[in-house]
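subagent[fold] <- orchestrator: predict structure for attached chain, return tokens only, no commentary.
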Amino acid sequence: MENRKTTKMKKYFFLYLIVFFSIISCKKKGCTDPASYNYDENAQVNDGSCEYATPYDLEIPPLFSQYLPNPIIPNNNPLTIEGIQLGRKLFYEPMLSGNNTQSCSDCHSPSSAFTDTNQFSIGIDGNFGGRNSMPIFNVAWNFNENFFWDGRASSVEDQAFGPVVNPIEMHETWPNAVNKLQNDNEYPDLFKAAFGTDIIDSVLVSKAIAQFERTLISGNSKFDKFLNNQISLTPSEISGYNIFMDENGGDCFHCHGDPTNPLWTDNEFHNNGLDALFSDQGLGDINGNSNDIGKFKTPSLRNLVFTAPYMHDGRFATLDEVITHYSIGLVNSSTIDPLMKNISQGGAQLSPQEMIDLKAFLLTLTDSTFITNPNFIEP
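subagent[fold] -> orchestrator:
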């Protein structure tokens, strides 16, 4: 009796296995991992075919790790060695311009902390833009994700997308730019390695450039080393720091941060008393809010040695002119930032020695290793 029962159970068990494996064999096989670049949303069984680019971990400065949240890396554009290498090549690629003469680097030079030493950058047709080119570094920590002086771009990818088609800048169409890359001997294979496809489009170009730009990290200045207890500051530099932090002195820290914000910018938008009336309305021209007319993005104070001229329109050729503006040159207007609390007297009214000391401190935020990093220059 027991043997019959056991035999019957074995029959059912083997029958179950046959049905089970029949069902499994009928399911579509493929890559089921959404993180791979050959993910098949219709696949039900992972057949081991998933392909990936090589993950890349940012080299984050100690003070950034200590004081800042993790950098923003989109899930749909993770950093990879292949993607960054491609983005670096594209950043220096003149084929992205209408006449094959201009690349991103022409307006964002590594020797100038990825900005332009001209007041206004010149496009391929000889036309001048209306604003000074913003430097590119530490963009992965722009947590409000508003880019450009007026905040018109909402991501690093979006920031990279615009200049190619801007008629004053690179003056090309994306179909033309993509066609040139597609017909190149190298680029299809590079896109295949980075994104799993050799079919190039504008989205992938922007993603690659954005990956490269997120690696442009500046965090090795004299002041960084001071905060890391590696070096000392001069009496003038210490005095300048105190003036920077003093609400009754320079009162600079509200917009530009303090040692707990190694970005040295709040990445917000302010009317900092440049004009009474505005031909360039800044953020207000983008969002249509009259309360935001004349507001522009706070630039980082890092690398000021390399990033002249200053302000959104490059009106100040020297750092001394900038300090003088905040000391005696503030101009009132309807949208003046409340942080410009000395507006009634034209500014902070710093003494000549205080201005010298403040400049000495600001220069300690210079990161010379940033502009000589071999990973950032043209490949």
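orchestrator: received. Logging for downstream: The chain has three domains: 26-53, 62-217, 222-370. The chain has a mean pLDDT of 93.
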